[in-house]
Amino acid sequence: MNKKIRYTTGFFVLFIGMVLLFFVSLINGSVEFSLKEIMNIFSGNDTTVGQNIIFQIRLPRIVASVLLGGSLAVSGFLLQTFFANPIASPFVLGISSGAKLTTAIIMIFCAGRGIILNSVSLVISAFAGAMTATGIILAVSGRVKNMSVLVVCGVMIGYICSAITDIMVTFADDSNIIKLHNWSMGTFSGTDWDDIKIISVIVSVTLVFSFLLSKSMNAYQMGEGYAVNMGVNVRLFRVELILLSSILSACVTAFAGPVSFVGISVPHLVKGLFGTAKPIVIIPASFIGGGAFCLLCDLIARTFFAPVELNISSVTAVFGAPVVMWIMLEKRRRKTT
Amino acid sequence: MNVFSAEKLSVGYGKKIIAADISFQIEKGEILTLIGANGSGKSTILKSILLQLKTLSGNIYFENKNIHEMKRSEIAERISAVMTDRITPELMTCGDVVESGRYPYTNSLGILSSDDKAKVREAMELVGVGNLFYTDFSCISDGQRQRVMLARAICQDTDILVLDEPTSFLDAHHKLELLNILKKLVRERNLAVIMSLHELDLAQKISDRIICINNHTAEKIGTPEEIFSGDYINSLYNLKSNSFDCMYCSYELERPRGEPEVFVIAGGEVEIYRKLQRKNIPFAVGVIHENSIEYPAVRALATEIVTEKSFEPVSQQAIEKALEIMKRCSAVINNCPAWGTMNKKNSVLMEQAEKCGIPVYNSKK
User: Fold this and answer.
1) Quick check: A215 and B97 CB within 8 A?
2) Considering only alpha carbons, which residue of chain B is nearest residue A276?
3) pLDDT at residue A335 tops 60
4) Chain B contacts of A212, Cβ < 8 Å?
5) Window 215-234 of A, Cβ < 8 Å to B
6) Where are the domains of chain B?
7) Which pTM value belongs to this model?
8) What is the model's pLDDT at position A45?
9) Opening angle at CA B320, ends B360 and B313, nearest 5
10) A2-336: which CATH topology?
11) Which residue of B has its CA nearest to A228?
């Protein structure tokens, strides 16, 4: 009973937070609107300029940060379960950077030949990069059971991929640079409704599948041995888990570039809020929490130093890094008491 | 009827065979214990029958059904486990851990019915951890943890329970408690238990049958009486002959080496022999009856022994042999508080020692 109340409260808090942030994000920006103006715009009684700003720029960006932020958080949670490691996330394990590298290659290659890329091919190339990085990580984790080695490998892969991407961006044609540069630092700006359509299809399908895996994940949290004994097809389960998390992080990288710290910090915040690590609760909660977190970070990124826009990772890091440190300390404290 | 049987099983990792040609059966209400040295493959065998490792060859049957013809969920309803490796699940209460045992019976999202919840409670009460339902799993003691894991395995509602060294991290009290619970379970629920144990004394007492894993196979299978006889355990664990005593399941440290320096006249308690062993003084003992309580310790620790058959008075022949050894020693310790009908002759040893000028001490001083 106690648990039910806690879960309900948790979801309620997250949801309210998300709704509030949604409106605050809608109102604030380089052009500010009052609530009344917003109402007018939505009911179609306002100027075309206002409508354009809200519908063509701000709303898609808000939806993108919610969907992609949520995906990152869920992807992080899946990886944390997979590796039984609290700091596993697409960014730490180099999966985001792998996706970033392949996407950058494709972008530059096509831009040089005047080919206009559609979003689907971006996602596919990001997915290829994500899977390659994941493959390397899996090969390492199969050989060494030591978790710190795994994380070090992931961080190294991340550095290598980022470095190569930076070199390529440096030598890319001037005309492409600005967009490419922004993207490679991570940003939710420049998303349009066509992108949103693709994002929502990919994200919702992956989320549903992840949610359906929550029973097996719950068993897997007890360790591989017990999972087998409870009838889980562990080999298949592991493949499914890694595929889903790679698709999610590839999708984020394709549209918003690499975004750090959301994947680590949000699942932990959410676990703390709900007092449980049960996937059936944490998967949806991470999604909402990740969405709200990215909405907040994006709001800060575009309003704090307006008209200068910060890249999203700088903001998520400022908020996310303390959370990671807090996790470490909290773990130690719990062990000693 | 056999509820489980293994037929010519080979187990190991990848291509490396750890143990081969293992066949055994188990009935309901029976406890089958695997014993053997570290690294002999006990855990590997248990992991293989739990399907955590792929068996390299051979067959496994539940009743008469081959495991290959069974679905994963079906197997999960037949066999449950308590493994050695400590799990460290995040933010899980003991209740959550036990609930995971109901996994094979829940719907596709893993939500427990009220019937499932009742079974979880029942299992926790049965092993005496009912009060821990809301306690964080990472905050309980080893003894409690092992019982929570047992409750988890119980509520999986299987007829076979596999336990890998369930008593390893536990103190004497919790070891006995866990095994008592296990015995009760087997009796009340008619379970079949397959487990590995390192504690030979406990294995001897709790098991209905014992499998000895040695030389990469199940070297010997039998009742505790059959296994704990003669020198078999010493050879199974590659112990120096006689350092393990089957009757009392007690171990002795290595005997002092060299020519005996002290001669002990037998007939009292065992402390003096252990004391000499600790001081590393080689000693001889005589004349000792084969049914005396000192005999197992003396046999393991003394460099030379002169014995007499049980219930027979000490013979002249034995005394002469003892005298001959005693004269080589530099001291005599009398461990015998009184001379009775059977050991009267041992008093001769005392007299002779005094005559020859060998100092005589009393073991009590």
Assistant:
1) no
2) B91
3) no
4) 108-109
5) 215, 218-219, 221-226, 228-233
6) 2-78+158-241, 88-156, 262-362
7) 0.85
8) 67
9) 90
10) ABC transporter involved in vitamin B12 uptake, BtuC (1.10.3470)
11) B52
